[in-house]
Design goal:
Elements: H1 2-6, H2 8-46, E1 50-55, E2 59-60, E3 63-64, H3 75-84, E4 88-103, E5 106-115, H4 119-122, E6 127-130, H5 135-140, E7 144-147, H6 149-156, E8 165-168, E9 171-179, E10 194-198, H7 199-207, E11 214-219, H8 225-239, E12 250-254, H9 255-298, H10 300-308, H11 313-348, H12 357-383, H13 387-391
Helix pairs in contact: 2-9, 2-11, 2-12, 3-8, 9-11, 9-12, 11-12
Length: 394
């Protein structure tokens, strides 16, 4: 402690590399972990048991088709799923149309989703005002809709929109309900800039089509998602008369798969960032070794004196090794503190960050390894000095 204190500024410079390196590793881990938790929470809000069925990309004439241009999901598929479901609770076909929504002198760009009654149950979305459309509205293709909060703010300001008529692609729609606010998701998408109408209305009156863009379902529980996917696959293959061994003309994905994919991607990114930050620890270790080598040279006479009164080589070696470890651990503690402060700052500016407990343990372990590894050579050099030559060293 005295030796370190006698050269406080030089010791601090030795620690600085460790401080910056440990802080960088911790903040990178914290941001990676926080982002992963944020994404998982966002997907969980939408329901981890949600299953999406989309028209699959097939090759026709050697050309791979765009899934959105395919017309493999029909009303018959929706009815077959509803009539044969065992592991599925809710089902909603989906048709979308983008365009300008107008009320009076106000207008905004948005997307209209054609859905069934069960769409709000699948998305775990509640109504703030009014009601949802009915089975009778779906049968008739009624021009009614439920709107999100962004549409309310853009078109109606502070007035109640329920009962008023809006125009979408020049077609009038009566607003019968308002959805509760959801805000932006992890990808920056405004979930409230939405209009939900009966799927028959969007299919016939807006798009003039007979097929769905997708079909959204929810499994009974998250654990039954795989069973539900197998069930849906069997129903659709039979409905599409696909021969055994032939490829599906549709694709089925679950939110759980999306969550696993996103988590895996974030883990990979975090590892890359941590490895990049860890190089600064390597540089810091080299810095400590250089400082300790200089210290051995400057304290050669002290080493000779100690040896002359009985200090063994192991005693001298331990002295310099302990100094190296102390510099590393002190730098590590200050680095952890700096990393924690940076994590608080990241959360304060809205960047999700969460320090995993194991990262602190890893930091201590790395600092100890650096102290021992890069302090060993200077300690060995000090222990190997000849006491007679050392004591008369100037």
């Amino acid at each position: 402690m005295t030796a370190i204190a006698n050269n406080a500024f030089r010791s601090f410079l030795s620690m600085l590399g460790i401080i910056i390196g440990v802080a960088a590793v911790i903040i990178m881990m914290a941001i990676g972990q926080g982002s992963k938790q944020s994404i998982r929470a966002e997907i969980s809000k939408m329901g981890t048991n949600i299953i999406n069925i989309r028209p699959g990309a097939r090759q026709r004439g050697g050309v791979r088709l765009d899934p959105s241009a395919m017309q493999t999901l029909k009303v018959e598929d929706y009815e077959a799923i509803v009539n044969n479901k065992k592991y599925v609770t809710y089902v909603s076909p989906e048709v979308t149309a983008s365009g300008q929504c107008i009320f009076g002198a106000n207008n905004t760009s948005t997307t209209m989703y054609g859905e069934s009654l069960e769409y709000l149950d699948i998305k775990q979305w509640e109504l703030k005002d009014g009601d949802c459309f009915t089975d009778d509205d779906i049968r008739k293709g009624a021009k009614v809709c439920v709107i999100g909060q962004t549409i309310v703010e853009e078109l109606f300001s502070n007035t109640n929109p329920v009962g008023k008529n809006i125009r979408f692609k020049s077609i009038p729609f009566k607003v019968i309900g308002v959805l509760k606010e959801k805000g932006e998701n992890s990808w920056g998408m405004d979930q409230d800039n939405v209009i939900v109408a009966p799927y028959t209305t969007v299919m016939k009156r807006l798009n003039a089509q007979t097929y769905f863009s997708s079909i959204t379902c929810s499994a009974i529980t998250e654990e039954m998602t795989d069973n539900a996917i197998d069930e849906l696959t069997a129903v659709l293959r039979e409905n599409h008369k696909i021969r055994e061994g032939a490829d599906d003309d549709f694709s089925i994905n679950s939110q759980a798969e999306m969550m696993d994919t996103m988590s895996s991607t974030m883990d990979t990114i975090t590892v890359i960032l941590v490895v990049a930050a860890a190089f600064s620890l390597l540089v810091a270790g080299i810095g400590i070794m250089n400082i300790m080598l200089v210290s051995v040279t400057e304290r050669t006479k002290e080493i000779g004196l100690r040896m002359s009164v009985g200090a063994r080589g192991i005693d001298i070696s331990n002295q310099f090794l302990i100094e190296s470890i102390m510099i590393s651990l002190t730098g590590g503690i200050l680095g952890i503190l700096l990393g924690w402060l940076l994590t608080l700052a990241a959360n304060a500016i809205g960047l999700p960050a969460s320090i995993p407990a194991w990262s602190i343990l890893v930091s201590f372990a790395v600092c100890t390894v650096i102290g021992v590894g890069f302090g060993y050579f200077p300690a060995k050099k000090a222990a190997s000095l000849d006491p007679i030559e050392a004591i008369r060293y100037e």
